[in-house]
Write a structure and sequence with these properties.
about 300 residues, mainly beta, eleven-stranded mixed beta sheet, 2 helices, 24 strands, globular
Amino acid sequence: MRPAIQTLLALCLLGLAGLAGARGSDKGDHPVLERTRSERSFELEPGAATRLVVDNVFGRIRVRAHDAHRIDLRLEKTVRGRSPDLLERARREVSLAVTERPGLVDLYVDTPFRDPLTREWSGSSRGWRDSGYRVIYDFELAVPRRIELHVKTVDGGDLRVAGVGGPFEVRNVNGGIEMLEVSGPGSAETVNGPVRVTFDSNPEGDSRFVTVNGDVEIRFRPGLSADLDLRSTFGELWSEFEVRPLAGRPPVESIENGRRVIRTDAGALVRVGAGGPTHTFETLNGDVLIRLAEPAVREATP
């Protein structure tokens, strides 16, 4: 039986002037505010493989692992409009679509500006900007440690994950990505913001970490054995692990402040230990830093 949504708080504030605590660059253009908070749980079959999809547009996403066989969701929805009529339009046009079936929980922010089949923007995204309203969903989730994670947002908040050991695909556009004590292989990509990941155990499959404006800082455990593909157009490449160049893109190496520095315009392809999975790190305006992780913090919270 599907659990009922339990609304904890519904707070409506109608007025002109800026409102404290409202996020988003358009708060002056959207002075009418409504905020609601709710909770929901999804019971899962113990030991069964489960994929969680969170497909957001505006707002932050926080995910942390727990030992229960369920997904706990705490959701805050903030609606802004230029008038009460536009606030009502936002309520009608934007909603959270929930799909729940064995092996999958899918949380999709449905808007008239996205194709429901491809989930891509239908036509120009200008329609959203000219709609006269903004709807922000802030997600906080507690999930089983071995869950497969596919989460993304576009604007309005960072994306943080802690303690998840399964495969992951994490996407942002205007915001950073932080992942603590993760284990699975996967990808983490954004455009404007840093990508910082600390592994609890070194991933056994290929992984990819990309941004355009920001640093890529990844911390692996001792005993790493992998091939590293490092690229930065206007930054530096650093490794705290001993590496040796592989054929194809020989880097320029030097010692600075007691650290081994690798520089190259085309990037560097290097091997740690005996080699293994290929991990790709890429940024345009920033540095790539491969670090040795400190002892795990087991109770890290995003």
